[in-house]
Design brief:
Length: 225
Amino acid sequence: MAKKLPIAVLISGTGRTLKNLLDRVEAGKLDVDVRLVVSSSERASGLQYAEQNGIPMAIVKSSEFMTKEEFSDAVFDACRKAKVEYVAMCGYLKLLAIPPDFANRVLNIHPSLIPSFCGENYYGRRVHDAALRRGVKVSGATVHFVDNEYDHGPIILQKTVPVYDNDTVDTLSDRVLLDAEFVAYPEALQLLAEDRVKFIEERDSFRVRILPPANQKQNLADDDF
Protein backbone atom coordinates (compact mmCIF):
# COMPACT_ATOMS: atom_id res chain seq x y z
CA MET A 1 0.00 0.00 0.00
CA ALA A 2 1.35 3.41 -0.99
CA LYS A 3 2.11 5.90 1.73
CA LYS A 4 -0.21 8.83 2.33
CA LEU A 5 1.64 11.71 0.71
CA PRO A 6 1.26 14.91 2.79
CA ILE A 7 0.43 17.85 0.53
CA ALA A 8 -0.81 21.42 0.63
CA VAL A 9 -3.24 22.70 -1.99
CA LEU A 10 -3.20 26.28 -3.26
CA ILE A 11 -6.40 27.78 -4.67
CA SER A 12 -7.69 31.12 -5.92
CA GLY A 13 -11.27 30.40 -6.96
CA THR A 14 -13.89 27.69 -7.17
CA GLY A 15 -11.73 24.84 -5.91
CA ARG A 16 -13.14 22.29 -8.39
CA THR A 17 -9.75 20.66 -8.73
CA LEU A 18 -9.39 20.50 -4.95
CA LYS A 19 -12.81 18.85 -4.70
CA ASN A 20 -11.82 16.31 -7.34
CA LEU A 21 -8.72 15.37 -5.34
CA LEU A 22 -10.69 15.07 -2.11
CA ASP A 23 -13.32 12.91 -3.82
CA ARG A 24 -10.57 10.60 -5.08
CA VAL A 25 -9.07 10.36 -1.60
CA GLU A 26 -12.45 9.51 -0.09
CA ALA A 27 -12.99 6.83 -2.74
CA GLY A 28 -9.64 5.23 -1.87
CA LYS A 29 -8.19 6.03 -5.29
CA LEU A 30 -5.58 8.61 -4.24
CA ASP A 31 -3.03 8.17 -1.47
CA VAL A 32 -2.55 11.76 -0.37
CA ASP A 33 -3.20 13.60 2.88
CA VAL A 34 -4.32 17.18 2.23
CA ARG A 35 -2.99 18.87 5.36
CA LEU A 36 -3.49 22.50 4.35
CA VAL A 37 -5.41 24.63 1.87
CA VAL A 38 -3.91 28.04 1.10
CA SER A 39 -6.04 30.61 -0.70
CA SER A 40 -5.00 33.90 -2.26
CA SER A 41 -8.39 35.36 -1.29
CA GLU A 42 -10.85 34.94 1.54
CA ARG A 43 -13.61 35.07 -1.11
CA ALA A 44 -12.46 31.91 -2.90
CA SER A 45 -15.50 29.65 -2.93
CA GLY A 46 -13.22 26.60 -2.93
CA LEU A 47 -12.55 27.18 0.76
CA GLN A 48 -15.88 25.49 1.45
CA TYR A 49 -14.35 22.12 0.53
CA ALA A 50 -11.56 22.58 3.04
CA GLU A 51 -14.06 23.56 5.71
CA GLN A 52 -16.35 20.60 4.92
CA ASN A 53 -13.42 18.20 5.25
CA GLY A 54 -11.91 19.75 8.36
CA ILE A 55 -8.73 20.80 6.57
CA PRO A 56 -6.78 23.74 8.07
CA MET A 57 -6.89 26.88 5.92
CA ALA A 58 -4.63 29.89 5.44
CA ILE A 59 -5.44 33.10 3.58
CA VAL A 60 -2.30 34.70 2.15
CA LYS A 61 -2.99 37.77 0.01
CA SER A 62 -0.27 39.25 -2.18
CA SER A 63 -1.60 42.75 -1.54
CA GLU A 64 -0.43 42.53 2.06
CA PHE A 65 3.23 42.14 1.09
CA MET A 66 5.74 44.53 -0.45
CA THR A 67 7.45 42.00 -2.72
CA LYS A 68 6.76 38.71 -4.46
CA GLU A 69 9.49 37.14 -2.34
CA GLU A 70 7.83 38.19 0.94
CA PHE A 71 4.48 36.93 -0.30
CA SER A 72 6.01 33.62 -1.37
CA ASP A 73 7.80 33.24 1.95
CA ALA A 74 4.47 33.55 3.76
CA VAL A 75 2.88 30.87 1.55
CA PHE A 76 5.72 28.40 1.97
CA ASP A 77 6.11 29.11 5.68
CA ALA A 78 2.53 27.92 6.09
CA CYS A 79 3.37 24.81 4.07
CA ARG A 80 6.45 24.11 6.18
CA LYS A 81 4.44 24.38 9.39
CA ALA A 82 1.97 21.86 7.97
CA LYS A 83 4.93 19.52 7.27
CA VAL A 84 3.93 18.79 3.69
CA GLU A 85 6.15 17.12 1.13
CA TYR A 86 4.52 18.60 -1.97
CA VAL A 87 2.41 21.62 -2.88
CA ALA A 88 -0.30 21.32 -5.54
CA MET A 89 -1.51 24.47 -7.28
CA CYS A 90 -5.19 24.02 -8.13
CA GLY A 91 -6.39 27.01 -10.09
CA TYR A 92 -3.88 29.22 -8.27
CA LEU A 93 -3.25 32.40 -10.25
CA LYS A 94 -0.29 33.92 -8.40
CA LEU A 95 3.33 33.58 -9.51
CA LEU A 96 5.44 32.41 -6.60
CA ALA A 97 9.17 32.52 -6.00
CA ILE A 98 9.99 28.86 -5.33
CA PRO A 99 12.44 28.52 -2.42
CA PRO A 100 15.31 26.02 -2.69
CA ASP A 101 13.77 23.58 -0.21
CA PHE A 102 10.63 23.33 -2.39
CA ALA A 103 12.41 22.96 -5.74
CA ASN A 104 10.67 20.17 -7.71
CA ARG A 105 8.12 19.86 -4.92
CA VAL A 106 5.48 22.27 -6.29
CA LEU A 107 3.05 21.06 -8.98
CA ASN A 108 0.69 22.85 -11.29
CA ILE A 109 -1.83 21.76 -13.89
CA HIS A 110 -2.32 23.81 -17.04
CA PRO A 111 -5.31 23.38 -19.41
CA SER A 112 -3.30 22.88 -22.58
CA LEU A 113 -0.52 20.70 -23.94
CA ILE A 114 2.55 22.67 -22.91
CA PRO A 115 4.45 24.28 -24.64
CA SER A 116 1.33 25.34 -26.58
CA PHE A 117 -0.91 28.12 -25.24
CA CYS A 118 0.94 28.67 -21.99
CA GLY A 119 2.88 31.35 -20.17
CA GLU A 120 1.92 34.69 -18.69
CA ASN A 121 -1.71 35.72 -19.36
CA TYR A 122 -2.64 32.24 -20.60
CA TYR A 123 -5.16 31.03 -18.06
CA GLY A 124 -8.80 29.98 -17.88
CA ARG A 125 -10.92 30.73 -20.92
CA ARG A 126 -8.04 32.52 -22.66
CA VAL A 127 -6.25 29.21 -23.15
CA HIS A 128 -9.21 27.52 -24.84
CA ASP A 129 -10.05 30.57 -26.94
CA ALA A 130 -6.47 30.61 -28.25
CA ALA A 131 -6.59 26.89 -29.01
CA LEU A 132 -9.84 27.24 -30.98
CA ARG A 133 -8.56 30.26 -32.88
CA ARG A 134 -5.46 28.32 -33.88
CA GLY A 135 -7.58 25.41 -35.08
CA VAL A 136 -5.87 22.65 -33.13
CA LYS A 137 -7.34 19.16 -33.43
CA VAL A 138 -6.37 17.99 -29.94
CA SER A 139 -5.97 19.78 -26.66
CA GLY A 140 -5.60 18.59 -23.09
CA ALA A 141 -3.88 19.22 -19.79
CA THR A 142 -0.31 19.19 -18.52
CA VAL A 143 0.88 18.47 -14.99
CA HIS A 144 4.32 19.93 -14.39
CA PHE A 145 6.69 20.95 -11.66
CA VAL A 146 6.76 24.67 -10.99
CA ASP A 147 9.84 26.82 -11.33
CA ASN A 148 10.11 30.60 -11.37
CA GLU A 149 8.56 31.03 -14.82
CA TYR A 150 4.95 30.62 -15.87
CA ASP A 151 4.14 27.06 -17.07
CA HIS A 152 7.80 26.23 -17.54
CA GLY A 153 8.97 23.47 -15.17
CA PRO A 154 9.57 19.79 -16.01
CA ILE A 155 6.50 17.98 -17.35
CA ILE A 156 5.25 15.01 -15.34
CA LEU A 157 2.42 13.85 -17.59
CA GLN A 158 -0.12 15.01 -20.16
CA LYS A 159 -3.63 13.93 -21.14
CA THR A 160 -5.27 14.71 -24.47
CA VAL A 161 -8.85 15.33 -25.58
CA PRO A 162 -10.25 15.84 -29.10
CA VAL A 163 -11.26 19.26 -30.36
CA TYR A 164 -14.40 19.29 -32.50
CA ASP A 165 -15.36 21.67 -35.29
CA ASN A 166 -18.41 22.88 -33.38
CA ASP A 167 -16.61 23.40 -30.08
CA THR A 168 -17.01 26.62 -28.15
CA VAL A 169 -14.76 27.89 -25.39
CA ASP A 170 -17.25 26.49 -22.87
CA THR A 171 -17.55 23.02 -24.38
CA LEU A 172 -13.79 22.67 -24.84
CA SER A 173 -13.13 23.98 -21.33
CA ASP A 174 -15.53 21.43 -19.84
CA ARG A 175 -14.01 18.56 -21.80
CA VAL A 176 -10.45 19.47 -20.83
CA LEU A 177 -11.45 19.83 -17.18
CA LEU A 178 -13.44 16.60 -16.88
CA ASP A 179 -11.54 14.29 -19.23
CA ALA A 180 -7.99 15.58 -18.86
CA GLU A 181 -7.42 17.72 -15.74
CA PHE A 182 -9.53 15.63 -13.38
CA VAL A 183 -7.69 12.52 -14.55
CA ALA A 184 -4.15 13.83 -14.88
CA TYR A 185 -3.70 15.58 -11.52
CA PRO A 186 -4.70 12.64 -9.31
CA GLU A 187 -2.58 10.34 -11.47
CA ALA A 188 0.48 12.58 -11.10
CA LEU A 189 0.06 12.83 -7.34
CA GLN A 190 -0.41 9.06 -7.06
CA LEU A 191 2.85 8.56 -8.98
CA LEU A 192 4.59 10.76 -6.42
CA ALA A 193 2.97 8.86 -3.57
CA GLU A 194 4.32 5.65 -5.08
CA ASP A 195 7.80 7.20 -5.53
CA ARG A 196 7.69 6.60 -9.28
CA VAL A 197 8.79 10.04 -10.50
CA LYS A 198 12.47 10.34 -11.40
CA PHE A 199 14.36 13.35 -12.74
CA ILE A 200 16.66 12.85 -15.71
CA GLU A 201 19.24 15.60 -16.21
CA GLU A 202 20.57 16.02 -19.75
CA ARG A 203 22.85 18.92 -20.55
CA ASP A 204 20.88 22.06 -19.68
CA SER A 205 17.48 20.41 -19.38
CA PHE A 206 15.59 18.28 -16.91
CA ARG A 207 13.11 15.60 -17.88
CA VAL A 208 10.84 13.41 -15.81
CA ARG A 209 10.76 9.65 -16.21
CA ILE A 210 7.86 7.62 -14.84
CA LEU A 211 9.09 4.41 -13.23
CA PRO A 212 7.07 1.18 -13.41
CA PRO A 213 5.14 -0.02 -10.34
CA ALA A 214 7.20 -1.69 -7.61
CA ASN A 215 6.03 -5.22 -8.51
CA GLN A 216 7.02 -4.68 -12.14
CA LYS A 217 10.42 -3.33 -11.10
CA GLN A 218 10.97 -6.49 -9.08
CA ASN A 219 9.98 -8.66 -12.02
CA LEU A 220 12.39 -6.77 -14.26
CA ALA A 221 15.17 -7.29 -11.72
CA ASP A 222 14.38 -11.01 -11.50
CA ASP A 223 14.58 -11.31 -15.27
CA ASP A 224 18.20 -10.13 -15.15
CA PHE A 225 19.32 -13.38 -13.48
